[in-house]
Amino acid sequence: MDFRHQPTTLAGVASVNADALLVVLVGSKVPSELPPPLVKALQAALKQGDLALDGGRSLYLGSLPGVKAPRVAFAVAADASARAVKAALSQGLAQLKGLGGRQLAVWLAGAGALTEAHAEAVATAGGDAVYLYRHTKPSAPAASKLARITLLCTRADEAAVSYGLKRGSAIVAGVTLAREIANRPGNHCTPTQLAEHAQELARTMKLKAEVLGRKEIEKLGMGAFLAVAQGSEEPPRFIVLRYDGAAAHDAPVVLVGKGITFDTGGISIKPAAEMDEMKFDMGGAASVLGTLRAVAQMKARVNLVGLIPACENMPSGRAVKPGDVVRSLSGRTVEILNTDAEGRLILCDALAYAERFKPRVVIDIATLTGACVIALGHHRSGLFTPHDALAEALARAGDAALDPCWRMPVDAEYDEALKSNFADMANVGPRAGGAITAAMFLKRFTDKLRWAHLDIAGTAWKSGAQKGATGRPVGLLTHYVLAQAEGGSA
Ligand code: BES
Ligand code: MN
Ligand code: ZN
Predict the structure, then answer these.
(1) 473 preceded by a cis bond (ω within 30 of 0)
(2) Which atom of ligand 1 lies nearest, measured to the CA of 427?
(3) What pTM value is reported for the model?
């Protein structure tokens, strides 16, 4: 989709050339920045009880006398925040869904000066509204005809709006890629196919890609990763992607994404209910690919590395068993007490591998624990790091992207749960605090790194009628990496 801006006067809003006009009404009063034909229509709608100025309400009006665009819709935002405006945009876009228009103009009435965040919200709401999974569903409805969204603005707001749309457009491309890859069923997104997506991305965005197979992974000594992979007929892949946007001596940001293309639990097998959703267990990997897509599209002056250990977690005669001890790339041994705690096993070897890039920061992204879903639900991702400035920078990036996270503790006391009589550590602790002990396990492999961990088990996909990948946390990560490119130190 194409996003543009257009400086307009108040009278220009009514005469804008578009197939549809979506007017976001900000606040609980009739905004003064509304041209007369729209004021008239709004007042009639309010009087008839068809619309109220309450956040979340919306109304489709069709054509209006005095307005050139043949379709008009209103959507109400509770306040002028980007969050409220995005929620209103989603409602308004739903009103226009399935109609014929190709070009949509958007006017934010009563929002005051438009910011980058407003413009980005227009782009991301548009991207979310038109994405539809089709790859294995020939009966899916025809793709949306909406091809262009033009945000109307004043001359004074032009620079902010233009940059916000550019960033929003990059995030939409990244989120859409992440959603598409994560939505593909396990038999259509094997480790091999995930690596092919990475190579395809490298071709289109001019990244460097390297894909290691089982032999090379063995040679490196990634015994923890290989223990998870050994139960599957599908060969593992270790994917390395590089975007070089800065000088070669500039230390890179390294993103590590959990790429379990299907998690049965292995010998510690999961119950059948909702096990299909474990095809989303490569959501971290998908978000790494999406972020590389967005950052490369922005041509950001930063070096960015993506690392993805990819395999299936399956039970079989060759599968790793509870009690087995394996040797990780770091040289330390792990007693695998529960084969369903496999994410941390593939990530610990990827974190050890990350050291060779001498990174400025390493962030791993993983659908790691059901316990994180219990702790934080589906709104905020879990953020774990011992570094305060890094925690703040990531939290700020999440807020700015409307893709929020929440910091969780990593106190040394939690680490004791990982003691083992037969290896340097166990891969699980007790049930209580499960998201934290998982983070503590990873933390053991990050002594030489500035590291943060994002547990996206509750945010990477939706269950139920709206089942599907969200593309999170591509927005958060893109904001963070762009801030690094602009000289951020945290
Ligand atoms: N991929 C799962 C985590 C998960 C479960 C995410 C449910 C979203 C919904 C992970 O590999 C896993 O199975 N974790 C176990 C860890 C436990 C065995 C310590 C879990 O959370 O139950
Ligand atoms: Mn598991
Ligand atoms: Zn898993």
Answers:
(1) yes
(2) 19
(3) 0.98
